[in-house]
Amino acid sequence: LALVEGSAAVAEESDTESTDPDEENAADAVAALDITGNSDAVRDMRRCLCAMQVQAGLRDAALVQAARLFGMRDAAASRGAGRDAAIAEDLVWLTERGLPEAVHLLERRWPGLEIDEPLTAYAAAVALAAAGDRRRSDALAERARDRMRLAPGGFPPRIRTALRLVRWGAVEWAIRDYDALLADPALPAEEFAWASILYSEFLHDQGRQDRAAEVLEPVIRGRPGRVGEEPERVFPRLDRDPRTATSRMLYFKACAAADRGA
Fold first, then answer.
1. What DSSP letter does each residue of 168-203 carry, written as one string?
2. How far apart are CA 63 and CA 7, in angstroms?
3. Once rounded to an integer, what is the mean pLDDT over residues 29-55?
4. Number of C-alpha atoms within 13 angstroms, CB side, residue 71?
5. In Å, what is the CA distance from 154 to each residue of 70, 139, 211?
6. Which segments of the chain does DSSP mark as H helices, in order?
7. Are the C-beta atoms of residues 219 and 245 closer than 8 Å to each other?
8. Which residue in 55, 69, 143, 156 sits closest to 97, CA to CA?
């Protein structure tokens, strides 16, 4: 339990640093919740305490709570609960609230941030980018993309990762992963159509109207060399009307024309 041991070490170094009564009361509340076993409540309290400490300029104290937060995830994994996705979400949450250096706490488990799990690697890349280390960030994102291609589970984890990258604001990495997903010749027709719909809406939100329309064209006309991928066959299996894709494609083209002043 590397993260548990690491969080304990960080905590021992910093337990005597705080003399703020409000901070001590908040820490006491977290400790009380720890006893109840309500992990969601403890997570939320630790997150809130981290955010408060960052706002107060108590970055070392915030890192202590971040280490304990990651330690909770590691301990949960020993009981069969999920860990990596939760650590990834925690890290991005901390990064968004001004504590990207929390990424270095993960080096206790993954020295040099040599992370094989794609989602966690992407989250670490997001944190490194926010901390200004673009070189390591890009290298880690590239590693995540390579691991994503090899990850078990097929379509679901790949589309979930793309959606998370969108939510995390990692636009270019999301585009890269969507493009790689749609370029996969082994992707079944239904999954290709669903990924294309999600991708086109994301591109539309980014103002990339021509590309959004382009993504939908093979959904409407069928991928070259494929038989049986007519939208009239595919879309009912998605519980969608095939005309909606055509309507959205035409709308995106109209948006592109409007952007050009046509």
1. TT-HHHHHHHHHHHHT-TTS-HHHHHHHHHHHHHHH
2. 9
3. 73
4. 17
5. 27, 24, 25
6. 2-14, 21-36, 39-55, 59-77, 84-96, 118-130, 134-150, 155-167, 171-182, 189-205, 209-221, 231-237, 243-259
7. yes
8. 55
Tokens representing residue 131 in the block: 């901390």
- Locate 245 and state its tokens: 């894709």
**Rounded Cα distance, 123 and 141, in Å:** 9
* C-alpha to C-alpha distance for 262 and 259, rounded to whole angstroms: 8
Name which of 65-69, 170-174, 204-208 the model is least confident about: 65-69
Backbone angles phi, psi at 185, to 5 degrees: -70, -20
Q: What are phi and psi of 80, to 5 degrees?
A: 90, 0
A 10 A CB-CB count for 169 gives 13
Structure tokens given for 37: 């076993």
Residue 118's identity, in one-letter code, is P
pTM across the whole model: 0.81
Question: What are the φ and ψ backbone dihedral angles of 208, each rounded to 5 degrees?
Answer: -100, 70
Q: Is the Cβ–Cβ distance between 77 and 92 less than 8 Å?
A: no
Q: Is 128 helix (H, G, I), strand (E, B) or coil?
A: helix
Helix H or strand E encompassing 127: helix 118-130
Contact between residue 206 and residue 190 where contact means Cβ atoms under 8 Å apart = no
d(CA 3, CA 10): 10
Tokens of 206: 């980014």
**SS3 helix, strand, coil % of the chain, rounded to 5?**
75, 0, 25
Write the pLDDT tens digit of every residue in 99-156.
999 999 999 888 989 888 899 999 999 999 999 999 999 999 999 998 888 776 788 8
